[in-house]
Design goal:
The chain is mostly helical. It has a single domain (15-117), classed as lambda repressor-like DNA-binding domains (434 Repressor (Amino-terminal Domain)). The protein has six helices and no strands. The N and C termini lie far apart (42 Å).
Length: 118
């Protein structure tokens, strides 16, 4: 089932329902589900207080996209790189999640290998 901006109230938006939503909204839902957090928990972890529940719901439904500094707070709360929230395709998004989890030494090693492969 595809999510729409007019989804029924009380129904949780799941990653499987996000086809057709803007990139940020899709990735926000995916990251929130991976973290196992509610919208309220994300808002609290990101230290977003003013009308947090409404704002989080709007981000998730694609009604609004947060400013970059807010996106950074959300990414930190969800333990994903902020770039993930803007990744246009699934392969890039998955790469960013894997890259984010690597220790710095391994990142350097992989970066060097990629540069040599060019």
């Amino acid at each position: 089932m595809k999510a729409t901006l007019g989804k029924p109230q009380g129904r949780k938006l799941k990653a499987a329902d996000v086809d057709g939503l803007p990139v940020f909204a899709r990735r926000f839902v995916q990251a929130r589900e991976r973290a196992g957090l509610t919208l309220e928990q994300v808002a609290a972890a990101a230290e977003i207080e003013d009308a947090a529940s409404v704002r989080m719901s709007q981000y998730q439904r694609g009604v609004h996209t947060p400013r970059f500094n807010v996106a950074q707070q959300l990414a930190k709360a969800l333990n994903v790189p902020v770039e993930f929230l803007y990744a246009p395709d699934d392969q890039t998004a998955e790469f960013l999640l894997l890259w984010h989890k690597l220790p710095k030494a391994k990142r350097t090693q992989l970066l060097n290998a990629l540069q040599e492969a060019r």
